Amino acid sequence: MGSYLNFPIFIILASLLNPNIHVSGDSQPEILNIEQYLQDSPSANTRFFGGRNFNTSECTSLSPEIRSEIEDYREVVYRILETTLTGHFQGKTYDDLATFVDKFGPRVSGSDALEESITYLGQLMTEADMEDVHEEEAVTPMWLRGNESAILLSPRKESLDIRGLGFSVPTPDEGITGEVVLVRSFKEMQAMKESLAGKIVVYNSKTGEGPLHCIIGASMAAKMGAIAALARSATSYSLYSVHASVQFYDEKIPKIPVAALTLEDADMIERMLLRGENVTIHLTMTNTASSERMSRNVIGDYKGRELPEEYVMLAGHSDSWDMGEGALDDGIGPILAIEVINLLRFLNLTPRRTIRNAFFTGEEAGLYGARRYVSDHRSELDSYSAALEADFGCLRASGLLFSGSTKATCIIHEIMQLYSQMTNATSLIRVGGVPTDIYLMNRGGVPGIVLNGDDGRYFWYHHTDADTMTAMQPANLDRCLAVWASTAYIIADLNEKLPRD
Ligand SMILES: [Zn+2]
Fold this sequence. Notes:
alpha/beta; Aminopeptidase; elongated; disordered N terminus; glycoprotein
């Protein structure tokens, strides 16, 4: 069913953290009250919905006129493909992305690096001759990683590589020493609850529940009296790499420190315990949560020639997690969006509608920038034909995820036929709602499109120290640019906005 199956974390979150959200493979988004969503907790907005490969048999009613209108863009798409794959823009996205991420490194919410990178993105938009380039303030939370160590004291002494999960409380200065109890599921932990008081819980699940341990495992273990929790990294593959994201505490339960372990160490601890050995760990974490910091969304327009008050949004998020250099997540989003404008200008292509670049802050901590944007711009949502975001890297231009009406999905499918052969971007997955920053706009009725840059390895790199340019290939970035520019341009230039029903 495609690579969205690599995102069980969001699906589970959706069902567990917000029972109001219908999680299934259905493909028609319900249009919900945007006010209600703005009031949701940030955690509840970090979610992804199931989907399915789109079946074109649903498109028999697509009119010959719209098919022919799209077919007329074949020449334009050819020029875009030629310029990106073998022409003037060949390799440019890779170079510009490398310059960006090497210059600032990780851009975690609350850091100076993030704020400087936002200013830089604004400069790039100005250099791309975009109009109305401006910043809009948005508050983001701050959590700073400190020194972190986990020392295996018995059955032998060894240092284990860990990363605190986002917003984890620190340990006391002297650290925490505890005997380890290993569980593979919440159900198993419930059955062992009498033996967890004063212990360090190690979660080691290889099933779909595993990522959830990294999100709510601390509170679940604390409820049973545990003093700390360590969770197997939420990745399917590891060369001793730790994967860490934000975790969420239940405010009604005492907060205990929580960190992610490598797959290798989690498995080793399990083997030791199965042999009947006593496993003890000393854990020290000095991370700090401090007050909120004012940050900024940065926005710029490539004005439409006929309908400048109608929009197609090209989004990305400026912040990253604090590991690697945030190349896949999400340096690619802003750089690709700016590159689309540079490319269209180079080819003298000005669409009917305005293409708006919007780069949101505080995504990793809980969509803080995107929530603020929708709050301030909610009255404009009807003027959007679509919102597009690249936030699944570009290890390969696999295709698109789309959330919108059947007719609009058919139009997207027709557009993809113009470039799929040259880019291998053949997969169109229809989802009930798109993840990440454009999630809220999509729930407000705006058709949502996410560039699927996953080749099955996205979570090998995502939120690890390996999220760097070394994972990237220039030719794949060129294909992603061709897909993104063609899709955005045609949607912005069609006679009609994408139909919402
Ligand atoms: Zn991201």
